[in-house]
Amino acid sequence: xxxxxxxxxxxxxxxxxxxxxxxxxxxxxxxxxxxxxxxxxxxxxxxxxxxxxxxxxxxxxxxxxxxxxxxxxxxxxxxxxxxxxxxxxxxxxxxxxxxxxxxxxxxxxxxxxxxxxxxxxxxxxxxxxxxxxxxxxxxxxxxxxxxxxxxxxxxxxxxxxxxxxxxxxxxxxxxxxxxxxxxxxxxxxxxxxxxxxxxxxxxxxxxxxxxxxxxxxxxxxxxxxxxxxxxxxxxxxxxxxxxxxxxxxxxxxxxxxxxxxxxxxxxxxxxxxxxxxxxxxxxxxxxxxxxxxxxxxxxxxxxxxxxxxxxxxxxxxxxxxxxxxxxxxxxxxxxxxxxxxxxxxxxxxxxxxxxxxxxxxxxxxxxxxxxxxxxxxxxxxxxxxxxxxxxxxxxxxxxxxxxxxxxxxxxxxxxxxxxxxxxxxxxxxxxxxxxxxxxxxxxxxxxxxxxxxxxxxxxxxxxxxxxxxxxxxxxxxxxxxxxxxxxxxxxxxxxxxxxxxxxxxxxxxxxxx
Length: 513
Description:
With 513 residues, the protein is mainly beta. 10% of the residues lie in helices and 41% in strands. Among the domains are: 6-44 and 365-397 and 490-512, no CATH class; 401-484, 2-Layer Sandwich (Alpha-Beta Plaits), CATH 3.30.70.330. The longest helix is centred in the C-terminal third of the chain and has 13 residues, at 374-386.
């Protein structure tokens, strides 16, 4: 029987393989190998989200982290205007936007293409004291409506008075609609969220929501909805997020309790707004088992649970209160709404000093198959010379995690370097191993070192993964020293076809040849 080659695999086998690739980059690699593999793979509806920091100051490059494939990426951004960045939530989880304000003139930026949209001047009365921008939040909605809002609190006697100020710009408007409302007797200044829905601004304060009309000439008094009973006792911190999922407005709240030994305990509940009864209704964990929630600042959204097999009813969030929490609790968590259990996933990558992180869903668009040869490359060069107008090209590259020299202590007397390579190869890519031996006896001096890289984005996570290793009955003691980044050689694709595939992150693409 003639042995079949890889390109000749049965279509049903290729389709089964491609359907199991849930990481965007793995899917592109598979599709770019050859024409039969490419034709068998259909674009997946959605991929697991990527995490990225949203710093207020200029940050180059923009970094991404895929928790599910343990991969990191980065993109050099176009040169943008200087100034503080105000990141906005978007209706589409595949896009990100931020705002800059200079002399009351706001500009909306797409950080992935460098595109800038100039918006009308902000009303003078919302910028009188110059402090509104310091606590500014906002969102861009599907119809093009832009909402900007800020909350300032004042303490008078035994009560807290909160001033809510917002401006709304709808498609076709030449100026912003200004809204201002006072809320009294609020207890916590960090529990404010706002969104624009059905022609009204909804503001959540503690466990109630207020509806604010945006029509000119209408008294903008808040209308309180029925309060939700207190579900958590004493807690140190509370974080609230608003998102829409399947036509419902959801309010997710994370409570953090502290104990005498500085440990933290998380609890969470998700409510849906019942417009008819004008109240929040807590959703049962099982009612959310068909989706997964991703909470971030500014973007929060829900995806179908089929994208994350086995993690329906989960909520992914970033906890970055490094001043209040132990170091090990500074990173990404997953909360199970069905059994009310929380699991620490991983620390934020080293160098992510921003306290705010958001989520982004990468998209894939398959480029037409084309033969790549000398003549096609020369024709492409001529075409590039004909282009005179500036274009925005974003290059996304794999960002390999640091290479470490692992110092290993308490080795067995008769251990060999090949044994170290085999043991540590289960936890990453090993570049070299060496056992320090006695010159006379040729036996180990209980010490060795391994140069390797791991999929972990933080040194402490890599160290935790290697702790507790045992070799021939000896408990190994590990110490890691950062070496730099490993040299990566670009692998050549098979020569029988030159295929191209594009990974779209928002409006920019990553081209694989």
